[in-house]
Amino acid sequence: MTSTPPRTTGAPQDFNFTRNATGLVREVSMWDALIMNTLGMNVAVGSVLLLQQAPAIFPGGNMVLSVIIGTLIMAFTLLWVYSEFAAAMPRSGGDYVFVSRALHPFLGWLLSWSQGVWLIFFWIGFNAWFALVAAAPTAMITIGSVTGDQGWISVANGLLAKHDFLGIHMQWYVFLFGTLLNIMFAMLLIFGGRVYWRVQKWLFLVAGLAILAMVVLLLARGTSISSAWDTFAAKNGTLKYGQVIPAAQAAGFTGANAPFSFTATLLMLPWVFFVVGYAQGSAQIGGEVKRASRSQYFAMVGGVLINGLVLAIIVLLATHAVGTSWLRSVDYLAANDPSKLGLPGGLPPGVNFLTALMTHNVALLALLGVGFVIWALMGTPLSELQATRYMLAWGLDRSAPQRLGRVSDRLHTPVTAIVFCTITGELALLALINIAQASLLGALLAQIGAFILVSAAGIAFPYRLRSVWESAGGRRVFGVPAVALAGAGGVISLGALMVLFIFNKSISAQFAVTAHLSVGFMLGVVVAGALWYVGAYLVNRRRGINLNLAFKEIPPE
Predict the structure, then answer these.
(1) How far apart are alpha carbons 70 and 79 in whole angstroms?
(2) Chain centre to alpha carbon of residue 488
(3) Does 364 score more than 60 pLDDT?
(4) Which of 111, 151, 169, 482 lies 20 to 30 A from 72 at CA?
(5) So where are the chain's domains?
(6) Gap between the Cα atoms of 50 and 52, Å rounded
(7) Does the predicted TM-score (pTM) go above 0.85?
(8) Could you tell me the pLDDT band of residue 369, with boundaries at 50, 70 and 90?
(9) What is the SS3 assignment for 62?
(10) How far, in Å, CA of 280 to CA of 106, rounded?
(11) Which DSSP symbol is given to 405?
């Protein structure tokens, strides 16, 4: 499926779009799509954050029950809507196409502009930065602390150290390695999708083995964590296992033995959403997914259910190994009085660290460390894939410069868009290294708002685009379109989640969603998007082009 000019094929040119085909190739298998979405959900980092933060903030909550509730809600509301759309309209740009055609062009544009700007100007750079300043140093300090080899800790400190070069004092090693990683992923994406999808499989294999190793260690040696912790404490001069709960209580923590609370369980859902709410990546590259009518349900709905199960297993094994009272207490100390906990290098007591205590095998420790770095890093190519497909869809609709939507006839990739994203990723990386406030930006409210729009579009879909909906099977439940029911559930559940993020101070502080910097940036992005849309409409009208005609049709494949 290449971008062949109409004069060669004899097909009539549809002048509502800049060309009759995107130029992309359907080469993404069902398993490629599942792996892409799994890496996007990032159960590794998500499980660390859930186990490290939620128990101390809402001590009466049951994390396993919260994971089950959150997984089922997301699978059969938001991700079901995405799956139905992606099966019926497998196009580049995903939710931009869905919302602009099912609801209104302006809403579709604002959604994609907001999502795209965050991807282009923040997340592409953020993932490499986070992998280098958090995941990699944590892995090295953990190996050094557990084995007693100070060389690993020295390397971690060296990576994070600031140096003077060209008259600039900053973390030059983070910038150097981050740049190399960004360029490497850009080259993979430019010079052929097949190569990238093969590399993704191999990287996922290593990342998946790290999760498997963690689960096996928790199963086989989980009962020995207390003695392993005490051995570690003796070497590093930290609190012993039995001293953690009394130390937390002395520091003012009263929730170690808190009874079960269903309210607290529901309040843990934002951490669950942080994992199972991000399985929609394959919808954004819908024009490249083989047999989309089947693959997308498996990759998104199935992906959420699979990853939710993995998350529940990790949480269950971790809480069984250390006990909820101890987990709540160690999390409280880590957040409120880390000096009293005394872990070397300011290590957080995450599940990856607790698992590492149960082995002194350097190869196994390295697998755990490298695996978690891969989980942290793979957001870079996934963000770039989604951002460039937004730009491609904008170019087709003439709502953005057509050059951004061009696909190389030889490589079948949007080279210009990928290069642009790599440059903006570098700018984000520099900002994150040099501006402390940049890391405090939070896009969760914007993302939840976008997901609410997609869910609302799902309600309207079978009524406003009936023939398109029926072409993908037209599923009904008790006579009501399944996508409309899922959309209604998505609007309600995501609306409730947004209320939690805004009005619960503990949650909003943890995710920085209501910080002045985040809110200001989000509102600025929306205003800029609205102005751009008006400008694009007026510019095209002067050229004799009515943008509304393009939005009345489904874009070319």
Answers:
(1) 12
(2) 24
(3) yes
(4) 111
(5) 6-551
(6) 6
(7) yes
(8) very high
(9) coil
(10) 21
(11) G
Residues 282 and 367: beta-carbon distance below 8 Å: no
What's the half-sphere exposure (Cβ side, CA atoms, 13 Å) at 107? 17
- Residue owning tokens 């004899």: 10
**Tokens at 165, concatenated:** 């070069």
Place of tokens 């990342």: 207
Residue positions counted in the chain: 557
For the stretch 87-124, what's the b/e string if a residue is b when 16 or more beta carbons lie within 10 angstroms of its beta carbon?
bbbbbbbbbbbbbbbbbebbbbbbbbbbbbbbbbbbbb
Instruction: Say which CATH class 6-551 falls into.
Output: mainly alpha
Residues 6+ apart with CB under 8 A from 133: 160, 171, 174
Tell me how far apart the alpha carbons of residues 513 and 486 are, in angstroms, rounded to a whole number: 26
Contact present, 433 and 48 (Cβ < 8 Å) = no
Q: What amino acid occupies position 78?
A: L
Which pLDDT band holds residue 242 (cuts at 50, 70, 90)? very high
Distances (CA, A) of 342 to 50, 109, 444: 22, 49, 32
Closest CA to 306 of 328, 264, 276, 280: 276
Query: CA separation (Å) from 345 to 138, 235, 430?
Result: 9, 14, 24
Q: Are 243 and 29 in contact (CB under 8 A)?
A: no
pLDDT digits (tens, 9 = 90+) for 271-324: 999 899 999 999 999 888 998 888 999 999 999 999 999 999 999 999 999 999
28: which strand partners? Answer: 289
In this predicted structure, the answer to whether residue 453 has a pLDDT above a threshold of 70 is: yes
Alpha-carbon distances of 235 from 148, 334, 343, 356, 439, rounded to whole Å: 8, 19, 11, 15, 34
**Partners of 477 in the β-ladder:** 480
Rounded CA gap, 401 and 19, in Å?
14
Task: Report how far residue 217's alpha carbon sits from residue 368's, in angstroms, rounded to the nearest whole number.
Answer: 11
